Amino acid sequence: MNNEEAKFILQGYRPNGTDAGDAAFRAALEQVQRDPALREWFARQQAFDAAVSAQLNAMPAPAGLREAILAGGRVTTPDRTQASWWRSPAWLAAAASVAVIFATTLALWPKPAAADTALADYVLADAGKDEMHGGHGTESLQAMLGDPANRLSRGLPISFTALRKDGCRTVTYEGREVLEVCFNRGGVWFHAYIGRRADFPALAATPAFLDKEGMSVAAWADDSHVYLVASKAGRAALQQLL
Fold first, then answer.
1. Of 113, 127, 117, nearest to 232 (Cα)?
2. pTM given for the model
């Protein structure tokens, strides 16, 4: 089972722990324990589901709803009064309330932010120093990064050790090595910073963004590496890469 399959299954996992012993979720839960990025996603998903459930549980059901449902189940011939219970003002108001609560919860839910803000700040500061760059790696790497058809968040077939040998600029952040590769796509320059996943476990797998002082950075991770791509072109230009 991979992470995408586990996420699909776990979207139906109730936040109150009722499904902990359900065999249908066993393999997905085991995958959560094995993968830190999936574990972080699952925690956020459960927190979101719990918030929505709390809002829905706080809203009382319309008076007479249970009786109307039971009465509808007993009717064998059409009855205009009973069949139209769901059109009553009370039920329509309840449905509207659910929609408002759900929309409000989504609006207030925190937007993705760079999981390691200190690292993102470092990358933004370093990328803004034009005189510090020059690591371009191999021609094949440049071609891959510069190709508009490549979506970087889908994975990069790279080796940290090989990149270091191929001429990528190496910087040190809190004692951990990070490689920089500069590349051009569509006439716009980007600075990609690549680190080992084991060195930066807090960085989320889902792309997140940070904007600061005229620079923007996108940050994400896969099983082996973390990636931060910075540019003066803004967030929209970074989103086109992903």
1. 127
2. 0.53
